[in-house]
Design a protein that fits this description.
Elements lengths: L7 E4 L1 H5 L9 H13 L4 E7 L11 H6 L8 E6 L2 H8 L5 E7 L2 H7 L7 H14 L3 E7 L12 H13 L4 E6 L6 H15 L4 E5 L6 H10 L4 E4 L19 H10 L8 H15 L12 H4 L1 H4 L2
Parallel strand pairs: 1-2, 1-8, 2-3, 3-4, 4-5, 5-6, 6-7, 7-8
Helix pairs in contact: 4-6, 7-8, 8-9, 10-11
């Protein structure tokens, strides 16, 4: 079976990972984390979200975090927005990539964006016009692409229609997000078989959570379909504040270890990422969900050395 020779990983820990934590991480610690992840070889890092600070207090300093980041042309820095106001806030910073996200579930759309699904496209239209009109690059993601705990699963045709609509805006990347961790390999392959031909030259990525323990199995399913863009979070941090029981994202270290074992290049140094997972584990006073970061650095290299 042929896999991609290289995989692009977007580290979402500074946004998706931290947003679930009640203990606020200071701004200077966040910027140090992001710089450390860039030094570890991450070429895509989602650094913040522009959301209401009362709903997600951890992201209240989004502008300050971005202001203190080095402008590194080798790193794809991005921030997420849920509505037009969030996009306008992002446009007042230098962030080059904006993620505009829409839910495939009415319950998730109401909980996350505060807008019912039958009205969300008016908002998306305004968001896209503002972001693309300002020359920013746009990642568009579809939350709950593989099911939602608060709603019946959206039929494939709904996901395909959403994908087609987003692609017509001229987005630069389409991401199918398993927000609730309900994806399975058959679901992943079945949906990708339909979305990939539609996307043509627009890269398609997967944003996977490990709620039901199938995160890396779903990565394998994506690789088998030719996917070469994945979102991960250091130490397996993450989840969605509006999805009860949602576990963290697939861990960056674990995912890179898998890629190493398959001789797929990422350019990422696992021990450097793991050091930050350990640091956050100590800061939050708990063991994170990822596996590999808990090992000593020599054991982290076993996959690469066994080829």
């Amino acid at each position: 079976m042929e896999f991609p020779e290289r995989v692009a990983i977007t580290e979402v820990g500074p946004r998706d990972g931290l947003q679930m934590e009640a203990l606020t991480v200071p701004t200077d610690e966040k910027t140090a984390l992001i710089k450390g992840l860039a030094d570890a070889g991450l070429q895509g890092i989602q650094v913040a979200s522009f959301v209401h600070p009362a709903k997600v207090p951890q992201m209240a300093d989004a502008e300050a975090v971005i202001e203190h980041l080095p402008r590194n042309d080798g790193v794809q820095y991005s921030a997420l927005a849920l509505n037009h106001k969030g996009v306008l806030r992002a446009l007042n910073t230098w962030i080059p990539w904006i993620e505009i996200t829409v839910a495939a579930s009415d319950a998730q759309s109401r909980a996350n964006a505060g807008i019912p699904l039958d009205r969300i496209w008016e908002e998306i239209d305004r968001m896209m016009d503002a972001a693309i009109g300002a020359g920013r690059r746009v990642r568009a993601s579809i939350q709950c692409s593989f099911g939602c705990t608060g709603d019946a699963p959206a039929p494939d045709v709904a996901i395909l229609n959403m994908s087609a609509t987003l692609l017509r805006y001229g987005i630069h990347e389409l991401v199918l997000a398993d927000t609730t961790g309900m994806a399975t390999p058959p679901k992943v392959k079945h949906l990708l078989k339909q979305v990939l031909p539609m996307a043509a030259d627009t890269p398609v990525g997967l944003h996977l959570h490990d709620t039901r323990g199938l995160g890396l199995v779903n990565v394998m399913a994506g690789l088998e379909m030719g996917i070469s863009h994945f979102d991960t979070s250091l130490g397996g941090l993450g989840g969605c504040p509006f999805v009860p029981g949602a576990a963290g994202n697939i861990a960056t270290e674990d995912t890179v270890y898998l890629m190493d074992a398959l001789a797929i290049e990422t350019g990422i140094a696992i021990p450097k990422v793991a050091r930050w997972s350990h640091r956050l584990s100590r800061f939050f006073g708990k063991t994170l969900q990822g596996k590999l970061y808990r090992l000593n650095p020599d054991d982290m290299q076993t996959a690469a050395c066994s080829r």
